[in-house]
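Obj.: predict assembly geometry.
Materials: sequence records (below).
Method: joint structure prediction, all chains together.
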Amino acid sequence: MQTNPPKGEELDGNLIAPRLDKLARIRELGLSPYPDQFAQTHTLKEVVTFNPEAPDTPTKFAASGRLMRINHMGKSSFAHIQDDGHRLQLYFQKDTLGEESYSQFVDLFDLGDFLGAEGKLFKTRTGELTLRVEQYLMLSKSLRPLPEKYHGLQDPETRYRQRYLDLISNKNTRNIFVARTKVVSAMRHFLDSSGFIEVETPTLQPLYGGASAEPFTTRYRVLDRDFYLRISDELYLKRLVIGGLDRVYEICKDFRNEGIDRTHSPEFTMMECYQAYSNYLDMMDLTERLVAHIAVHVNGTTSAAFGDNELNFNPPWNRLDFRESILNTVGIDLDDFIEAKQLASESLKAGVKTNPELGLAKVQDQLFEATVVPTLIQPTFVHDFPLSMSPLAKELSDKPGYAARFEPYAGKMEFGNAFSELNDPQEQRRRFLMQAEAIKLGDAEAQQLDEDFIRAMEHGMPPTGGLGIGIDRLVMLLTGNQNIREVILFPSLRTLE
RNA sequence: GGGCCGGUAGCUCAGCUGGUAGAGCAACGGACUUUUAAUCCGUCGGUCGUGAGUUCGAAUCUCACCCGGCUCACCA
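Observations (raw structure tokens):
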């Protein structure tokens, strides 16, 4: 839609002009439309907790916020100010303020302006807590109108492009992002108190790795070579475990140059943590406890409404063997197929199209995605993935061809990945070389050989469990949003010319 | 990328069997000293996403393009 993208210089039109006029009149009166400060006695959040009838209630409140509603009624006016998600009603009375002060409020203030007001609290006839204004001050003049007061801002495009308007007028939007912040802080708190230390590793990387994805490429001018925006921080965090940081984690943006849809954003936030002397089963346990802890911190309970379902993150979660999950769902036993083409044709019988030219692992993955994933509503660990799909994970000693790896699922959506980290450098080299074959087959997402990483591993790496959790998707699950754009403040959209 | 749906006033939406636009909120003027989606009277406000085409005449029909939503494909 062309209606709303900010046009910058064009501050005209008959909705803007009256505001500019008022701005000029404020200045003519020798007042500042943008004063330096206002001495608040209470935030709105605090004010709304008072009962005006209680004996210990202060006789003066000075509070401030954005004007969201004004009712002029001749010699008195009601208004609402909003701040930090809280609202307070103000009552302006000619008798209280005096003729000049009262009419200045009526003449010079618009919806959207910031205002500071001082006075006493009382309750209206209908019982609403209200501040009887004795003095007030313009704190900031607004030049553009707000979205409609009742319906708010509905248009999804404008909500994403001008998120500030969405935050002002839609309480639910605000709630989502407050919840998101709580998710991250609860995660940090849990990990910090479990002995993990938070680190920062490079966003710009000379080689990309740690995941299967196409990267964004950028030019590092001084070094005169291409760099990549990280698709993962895995290989750097493992170097740190090698360096003796036994429990590390990082929460950061990863970038993947791929499609955008309801569950994928090209830049998204990931938490990855690594714990020496543990394995993927320990990570499974960690995941359950971590997510349950976060859910309680955010929602007050381990359950969350998601679409038509009520998800319950209370441990223990379901556990589902990868091979068995496909066997039980479509009756195909992966162990019966060594060739990509065979499995692909068998999959097709079950109604699933795959790309056999990309190799067996890809076909297995596509079959799993199409058949098993849609059944995974309640939190579930899918474990023991085919080794060929897991170039950085250890092979299970009692299950050749399968990796000590799991992914947590909920709401038909993967939201993490974990394994017993491969720490045999010679085996790691072989795995990278297999990935090189996949690249030749046309798999644009296969992983690059990272000699420096192997060199680090050759110095000795302890047995280590690693876990990644997609923050955006976890927030989706805990806040009941089925679209990733609803949990990202400024989601990627095409630029408007 | 395919399919479907949408883009009309600042916002929320009508209008779409072709006759160049309406409502509510917002704004402006007026009435109103406990309103709260305040109410009542009056007024202003639109290159109907963009560009072509058909037509005497296009918001409306056709085509192309732009932007968004859903969906399928792709993508862990």
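Conclusions so far: Residues 168-317+378-487 of chain A form a domain with the BirA Bifunctional Protein; domain 2 fold (CATH 3.30.930.10).
To do: check interface contacts against the pulldown list.
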